[in-house]
Amino acid sequence: MSAVRRYDVLDSPPDGAFDRITALAARLFDVPIALVTIVDSDRIWFKSRHGLDVGEIPRDPGLCASAILQHGPYLVNDATTDPRTLANPLVAGDLGLQFYAAVPLTTHDGHNLGTLCVIDRQPRELTDDEVTNLQDLASVVVDELELRLSARRTVEVEAELRHVAEELAGTLQDSLLPAQLPAVAGLEVVARYHVAQRDQVGGDFYDVFADPSGAGCGVVVGDVCGKGAFAASLTGTARWALRTIALGDWTPAEALARLNAVLLEESAEPERYCTVALAAVRPRSSGGAELVVALAGYPQPLLVDASGNVQRLGSPGPICGWFTDAEYADAVAEIPPGAVVLLFTDGLLEAIGGRGCFSDGPVQDVLRSLAGHTAGDVADALDGALPTGDLQDDAAFLVIRADEAS
Amino acid sequence: MSDINALAVSKGISDGVLRIVVTGEIDAIAEKEFVAHVLDAIQATDAERIVLDLDGVTFIDSWGLRLLLKGRRQADTRRVLLTLMISPDSPVARLLEVAGVREMFAYELAD
Q: Residue B2: inside a domain, yes or no?
C-alpha cells in the first residue's frame, strides 16, 4: 500500500499515455474492456479504462485484488465455470464478465501496484504469445508510472535545492551587510539594498561605521564585478579591509589606495575588481556636515539641497583591485543643513533609468522632487521608482541627511 | 530564432593590424564567446597592433568591463598595442568613464 502512496497515482487526472495503452490492449486482444487498475486498501481504482463507465469498484469482489497477490499473469478463461470466480458478483451480475486476463504492475523494487487487465463477456483463451504481449504492455505501464515518479521527484528536488540556495544566499548576504546602521549624532543615514536574484548573493554592498575619532562616520557603497560565491568573498574582503584601514588615521583617497593594494595582494583570483565610493562625514555642531569622498570606478554621489539644487560630488577614480598604479583623490564638499547626499551603485541608474542607462538624470529628478524631505522619505521615493518585478542588476544606495542646527 | 542582442565577433588582418569587430552585448552570458573569439585571438595573434572595434556594442556591464581589462592585460603581456575604437557616447565609452579607466586604454576614432 505504501508503494501505491509513493507513486501518488490514486485519483490522479486522466492521462493520455495510459489511455492509449488500454485502447491498444483492447484492439490487440479484440476485447470490449481493458483497464489499468490501482489496488487501494478498500477499492480498485481505474487509472485508465477502455469500454467501462465506472471509475472504481470496491476491493472485495474485484478480481484485480486477487491478481496482484501473485507474480505472474492471472488468467480466467471462463469465469462461469472457474471455481475462483463463479460466485463473484461481477460474473453473476450485470457486467456478465466471463473472460479475465491480468498482469500485475510490478515496480522495479518488487511491489504490485495494480494490474493491466483485459475483460470479455464471452469465454476466451490466450496463446502464450498473447500472454507475453500482455506482460510487455504491463511493463510499459510500469515504465510510465516510474517516469512520472522520477519527474515528480526531480521537480521536488529542484524546488528543495532552490530553497536551500536562497536560504544560503540570504544568510551569506546578511553577513556581508551591517545588521544595523550605527546612530550618528547630527546625521540621518538610511541604506537600501535590492538583490536581483534571490538565490544568488548580490554583488553590491554597503557599510556605515562610526569614525574611531568620535566625530562622524565612514560610509561605503560598493559593487564587486560578478555575483554568487565569487563576489561574496571579494565583498567580505573589501568591507573588512576598509573597516580595518579606517581604524587609524585615514582619508577616503588613502583608504581606497590601500584597499587597492590589499585586493591586488590578497585576491586568489586576480582578475576581479570592485567599485567603491568611500566618504567620511563629519557633522557640524552648527548644523550641516563636511563630507570628504573618494571614488573608485563609481558613479558620482549626488547632493540635493533644501531648495532642490542638485550637484555631483567627487572626482572619478579607477576601479579597485586591478591596477597597481591606481590613484584616488579626496574631494571635500559642504552638506548644508537639511540637504541630502545619495551614494548609489550603477544598478540603481539602470533600475530607474532603464537597461544600460549610465545617466543619473532620472535619479536626479527623483531627488529634486524630494528636496527638503528626510533621508527616509528619499529612500522610500527611490524604492518606489524601482520597476516592479525582478531587477536586471543589484541596486544599493545610501541616503545621508545633515540635520539642521539643534 | 537568432538573438539580436547576442555577441557577434568578426576578424580581419591587414598590414600587420588585427581588426576585431564586436557587436551586441558584453556581459556574463557572452563571456564564453568573448573569450573564444576575442581574448584567444589576442593571445594567438602575430599582429603588431590590434584594433578592437566596439562601436557596435549595445550593452556592457561590470563583467564585460572585466573581460575588456583582461584583453588589455593580455595585449600588454604579449607586447602588442591594443586600441579601442568607440564613439564618445557609446555604452562602452560611458562605462569606461564611470569606472574611471578611460585613460587606461588607447583609442582611435570610429569611422
A: no
Architecture of the domain defined by A2-153: 2-Layer Sandwich (3.30)
Q: Which residue range is the domain that position B77 belongs to?
A: 8-109
- Asked if A318 and B99 come within 8 Å (Cβ–Cβ), the reply is yes
- What ipTM is given for this predicted complex? 0.79
Q: Given CB atoms, is B28 within the 8 Å cutoff of chain A?
A: yes
Domain boundaries, chain A: 2-153, 176-402
* Residue A228 touches chain B, beta carbons under 8 Å: no
Helix (H) or strand (E) holding B80: none
pLDDT at residue B1, rounded to an integer: 42
**What was the pLDDT predicted at B68?**
93
Which residues of chain B make contact with A272, given a CB cutoff of 8 A? 66
B94 near A CB under 8 A = yes
Residues of chain A with pLDDT under 70: 1, 61-62, 198-202, 227, 230, 267-270, 406
B80 in A contact zone (CB under 8 Å)? no
Which CATH number goes with the domain that contains B26? 3.30.750.24
Number of domains chain B contains = 1
How many Å lie between the alpha carbon of A315 and the closest alpha carbon of chain B? 9
Q: Which pLDDT belongs to residue A358?
A: 76
Q: Considering the domain boundaries, does residue B1 fall inside one?
A: no
Residue A86: C-alpha distances to residues A74, A94, A97, A170, A270 (Å): 15, 14, 10, 67, 84
- Residues of chain A in contact with residue B104, where contact means CB-CB under 8 angstroms, are 318, 323
Alpha-carbon span A210 to A83, nearest angstrom: 93
* CA dist list (Å): A340 to A98, A104, A108, B86: 90, 76, 69, 36
Cα end-to-end span (Å), chain B: 31
Span A176-402: which CATH code? 3.60.40.10
- Minimum-distance CB partner of B91 among A271, A295, A356: A356
Cell numbers linked to A45? 481504482
Contact A299 B101 (CB under 8 A): no
The pLDDT tens digits of the residues spanning B33-47 come to: 999 999 999 999 989
Q: Nearest chain A Cα to B66, which residue? A: A272
